[in-house]
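Usage

Read records sequentially. Each one opens with the input sequence:
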Amino acid sequence: MSTRGWYEYYTINPDLKQFALSMQFLKWGDATPGNALYEWLFFRDILEEAEGCLPVYLMDDMLKNQLQDLYDGLPENFAVAAFLFMLQRASETSLPYVNPYWKSKDIPIKERPDYRLGYEIGSLMDGYTVLPKNTDKHIKTVAEFIDIGNNIRPWKKYGLTFSVMEWLQYLTQITLQKNMGSIAGPYSSSNDHTFLFRFFIWLSGKDGFKIDRIAIEPCNSYKDSLLSPDFKGAEYEKECFQDIYEEVSRKVDKYDIKTYSLEAVKEEFDLTKDKFWEIKNYEYPELTEAVLNSR
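and closes with the structure output:
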């Protein structure tokens, strides 16, 4: 239950022959290769139903309106990747075992945090997003997250407290308390995870928000692909990874899961560089050449 995984969403523009690291985040709990493959199936089903056209414009408009000048510093295709992240959060928050602490307490319903937030959402008039009735329930939940960002928890109230990633995470939570699940916030991975999952998202050249294809590469903590039987590490680790590799192979074949690798992407496309993921908790002015030479 406490297995941790690091997720990377890469977007690919085949017309420009470019790719970008558009989103990355930690998942705390149940971050196993098997669950990551089911997450790919979840995305596949939603994309097939929507014919690749998710309402990403809602996310993009919110980011532009809320972040303003900061918008231009976001990673390439960030709105697409952030929408997929929020879809994953919507899926997690709808699970039956997600039971916030106040539901087990004898708290009057009108004093519960979920009721108060729901009341605020329901009180929105012009700011409430109306989608077609047959829209997938998870997409509707993402639209609510975006409404919260536009109207209830705008960036201007939290920009001095949260990073952009932490603010996006807060939009998907009822309170500040982080439950187990996908958590946006860290700008770089640490060694505190067991698996790494890479998702590759091909975008349409005609419509930058339309997703034509999605694939996955599950990896171990050494960044070895679990689609191949060659692993680093101690012998007992290799035996464990071998079992996982066989399980992954069975599920990939059974469910016709589309896979790809970062190595293959690098051979075919050029990386769009950005400085967003280089941000650290503390930044210092760069040392001038004169100071460096005086050391």
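Summary fields computed downstream for this record:
- Strands lie at 4-13, 18-28, 181-183, 195-203, 211-220, 270-271.
- The two ends are 50 Å apart (CA to CA).
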